[in-house]
Amino acid sequence: METAQAGWYPDPSGDATKLRYWDGERWTDDYADAQPNAQAASQPTPAPQQPSAAQSVATPTYYPQAQPVANDSDRGLRLAAFILCILSTVAVCWLIIPLAWMIPMTVHCYGIYKGTKANTTGFGVCTLIFVSLIGGILLLISKKDR
């Protein structure tokens, strides 16, 4: 028997402003704010229900956005980490091979600064090891999003 794939679905309790994660077998305790797109705003929203085997595979999957940084101290730490990632990437560019991981990590660090990516301990440690020692420490000091 085929079940609905894991993903973010409208909350089955009826709260249209929330999404809840379906892990493929059961509802988890993870919630996110619903972010309606322009197409959904023009169409009426059906009542949320538990995913069933009858649902098509084309059901949209929603991913929660990282919340913006709450205070200026964290924002400053994240900006300094991003600048140090850029400086480290430019300083090591003559080696070419490290650019394979330094450039994507610097782009991700920018996403953390802007609030579109989550600041996690794992990414802070990887930044510390692979990109910038001080930048990684700054990310580890700033507030974690998860």
Automatic annotation (TrEMBL):
It comes from the Bacteria. Residues 6-39 form the DUF2510 domain. Keywords: Membrane, Transmembrane, Transmembrane helix. Pfam families: DUF2510. The chain crosses the membrane at residues 79-101, 121-141. Residues 32-59 are annotated as: Disordered. Residues 33-59 have a biased composition (Low complexity). InterPro entries: DUF2510 (IPR018929). This is DUF2510 domain-containing protein. It comes from Rubneribacter badeniensis.
